[in-house]
Amino acid sequence: MPTLIPSSYTARVTWLGYQPVPVEKLVITSAPVKEMPLSFAGFAGEVHAGVTRPSCSRVTMLYKRDTEIRNVRQLCVVSAEEMAEVAATMGLPAMDYAWVGASLVLEGIPDLTHLPPSSRLQGPDGVTLVVDMENLPCQEPAVTIEKARPGQGKGFKPAAMGKRGVTAWVEREGVLRLGDEVKLFVPAQRPWAAVRDKFME
Question: What does the pLDDT look like over 26-47, one tens digit per residue?
Fold first, then answer.
């Protein structure tokens, strides 16, 4: 049996963008692009690009800060539908994807933020991204939104909880373009027994 199975879901690429180097502290300055050539290091010139990265606060239980580790946070993938819900909760007419540092915005996959780790998103030319895990809301988008819409940035973190998208890394090189259809493949495994059994108690 294959370890990955095709799901019934496809998604359309509705936005592509990147955060150029250098970056302003605590503020996200993303720029939209029409196509995104992806190498094994991610998108060249992007602040999160690289085959490896210095470890951050997310993995301090494992490593001292700035330890060189594999970079599985090359891209930030968000859902157009989930971002619309976040904007509505915050009282915004729409979410500017640049505010949240999105690399890739997809339309058509429900509950995208909770895709199983190791799911694959594959583009038309075979370019393939591997989902790392949920991308928890952080302070940078809140500060960025506050600068753009004074008085509303503080609402980002609670509104985006469970809807912030996922981080991903490039498994196969290629190019993503606006309007591309992306196919979703998911791991062929049952939920982890310890978690499954806890929720069945």
Answer: 688 889 999 999 999 999 989 9
> pLDDT, tens digit, for every residue of 70-83?
999 999 999 999 99
CATH architecture of 4-199: Beta Barrel (2.40)
Q: What is the mean pLDDT of residues 90-118?
A: 96
User: Domain locations in the chain?
Assistant: 4-199
140-143: long-range contacts, CB 8 A cutoff, minimum separation 24: 140/26, 140/27, 140/28, 140/101, 141/28, 141/99, 141/100, 141/101, 143/26, 143/27
Query: How far is residue 28's CA from residue 140's CA, in Å, rounded to a whole number?
Result: 6
Whether the model pTM is above 0.85 = yes
CA distances in angstroms from 123 to 36, 120, 129, 130, 189, listed in the order given: 11, 10, 9, 12, 23
Write the single-letter amino acid at 83: M
Whether residue 22 has a cis bond before it, omega within 30° of 0:
yes
Measured at the alpha carbon of residue 50, what is the angle toward residues 49 and 52, in degrees to the nearest 5?
A: 135
The alpha-carbon radius of gyration of the chain (Å, integer) is 17
